[in-house]
């Protein structure tokens, strides 16, 4: 084991001409099942460590002037890092992708007039969305756009996505788990718009496409089903717990409902149920359970509720390709298992019939024994 000791200044980030501070969490673990690396930022450096011995990869940190943020791919040893502008704009901001342990820079994108930058990885590490806030020419206001990286494609192509109204504020962003779609809440509260996009459609396999925009929704948070396809558009806390259950495949609303004062939304790992909860509140603490399509199933009130979590599911032994193949051929598999269920049902029915036949025979045998005894004792009764 190893201790990392020092003052707050020893863990500060940034560099010359850039505001410094401690970025939390200090340590970030790499994605995937191997858990081979973790990393932390320092002033002008990114330090990557091996989990096996807690030592620096190649015994030295990566020098990155003015680094302000970084994020691991959820599945691969790839780091995305953000460096802000310096020198009054003479040195542009940039987002870079760095491979570990080789420390090779896989891709870089320079960004100009940047006010802020947030990075969102898709759960399979297939895509990276970079939400970039830029200053207008007057520097008095900002506008928003996205840089979309296709990580698994050759040369990692980058697309620029701009909202129809570039002045819209981004309130929430969420990738579809294991999917190619994402949702964005944008505009002004309390009724912003919600747009849903796809990184590939039948018409545009290599271009981002907008699927729909839902106008004037009282929502401030997005919660995709772990299985994809369904999403809950939630208006939490100040928006009084309004909930919309939406089917992204069919682009239609399945249910509109509410859980007053709701503060949390949690999908169960199967994607079949949704829990909404009120926590840390003076009244109405408790949780509701809903079906995936918004049917209310249970309501449990608790005097004091601080957290709600579903029990995790073990990781699947199936490959992503096999899961996709099963999803595509679900009707074929359904027919197969329905036939097997019917066979089992018939077998159980035959077994039940045999059990009843034996019971009937035992009953008739018992009755006949008592009839015979009754006849034998007839003379004694006279």
TrEMBL record:
<dbReference type="GO" id="GO:0005852">
    <property type="term" value="C:eukaryotic translation initiation factor 3 complex"/>
</dbReference>
<keyword id="KW-0963">Cytoplasm</keyword>
<dbReference type="InterPro" id="IPR011400">
    <property type="entry name" value="EIF3B"/>
</dbReference>
<keyword id="KW-0396">Initiation factor</keyword>
<dbReference type="Pfam" id="PF08662">
    <property type="entry name" value="eIF2A"/>
</dbReference>
<protein>
    <submittedName>
        <fullName>Eukaryotic translation initiation factor 3 subunit B-like</fullName>
    </submittedName>
</protein>
<dbReference type="GO" id="GO:0003743">
    <property type="term" value="F:translation initiation factor activity"/>
</dbReference>
<keyword id="KW-0648">Protein biosynthesis</keyword>
<dbReference type="GO" id="GO:0031369">
    <property type="term" value="F:translation initiation factor binding"/>
</dbReference>
<keyword id="KW-0694">RNA-binding</keyword>
<feature type="domain" description="Translation initiation factor beta propellor-like">
    <location>
        <begin position="109"/>
        <end position="308"/>
    </location>
</feature>
<dbReference type="InterPro" id="IPR015943">
    <property type="entry name" value="WD40/YVTN_repeat-like_dom_sf"/>
</dbReference>
<dbReference type="GO" id="GO:0003723">
    <property type="term" value="F:RNA binding"/>
</dbReference>
<dbReference type="InterPro" id="IPR013979">
    <property type="entry name" value="TIF_beta_prop-like"/>
</dbReference>
């Amino acid at each position: 084991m190893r201790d990392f000791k020092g003052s707050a200044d020893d863990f500060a980030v940034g560099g010359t001409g850039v505001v410094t501070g401690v970025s939390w969490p200090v340590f970030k673990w790499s994605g995937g099942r191997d858990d081979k690396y973790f990393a932390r930022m320092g002033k002008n450096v990114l330090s990557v460590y091996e989990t096996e011995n807690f030592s620096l990869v190649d015994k030295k940190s990566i020098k990155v002037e003015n680094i302000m943020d970084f994020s691991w791919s959820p599945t691969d040893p790839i780091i995305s890092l953000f460096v802000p502008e310096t020198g009054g704009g003479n040195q542009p901001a940039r987002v870079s992708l760095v491979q570990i342990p080789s420390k090779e820079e896989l891709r870089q994108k320079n960004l100009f007039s940047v006010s802020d930058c947030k990075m969102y990885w898709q759960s399979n590490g297939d895509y990276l969305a970079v939400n970039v806030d830029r200053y207008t020419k007057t520097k008095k206001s900002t506008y928003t756009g996205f840089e979309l990286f296709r990580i698994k494609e050759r040369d990692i192509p980058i697309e620029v996505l701009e909202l129809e109204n570039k002045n819209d504020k981004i309130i929430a962003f969420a990738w579809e788990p294991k999917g190619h779609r994402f949702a964005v809440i944008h505009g002004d509260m309390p009724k912003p718009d919600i747009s849903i996009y796809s990184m590939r459609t039948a018409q545009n396999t290599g271009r981002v496409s907008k699927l729909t925009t839902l106008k004037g929704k009282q929502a401030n948070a997005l919660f995709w089903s772990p299985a994809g396809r369904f999403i809950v558009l939630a208006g939490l806390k100040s928006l009084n717990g309004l909930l919309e259950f939406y089917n992204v495949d069919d682009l239609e609303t399945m249910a509109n409902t509410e859980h007053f004062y709701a503060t949390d939304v949690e999908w169960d790992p199967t994607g079949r149920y949704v829990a909404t909860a009120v926590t840390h509140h003076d009244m109405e603490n408790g949780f509701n359970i809903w079906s995936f399509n918004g049917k209310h199933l249970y309501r449990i009130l608790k005097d004091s509720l601080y957290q709600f979590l579903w029990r995790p599911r073990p990781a699947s032994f199936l490959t992503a390709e096999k899961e996709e193949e099963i999803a595509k051929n679900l009707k074929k598999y359904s027919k197969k298992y329905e036939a097997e269920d019917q066979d089992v049902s018939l077998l159980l029915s035959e077994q039940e019939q045999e059990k009843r036949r034996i019971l009937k025979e035992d009953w008739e045998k018992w009755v006949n024994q008592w009839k015979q005894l009754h006849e034998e004792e007839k003379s004694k009764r006279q």
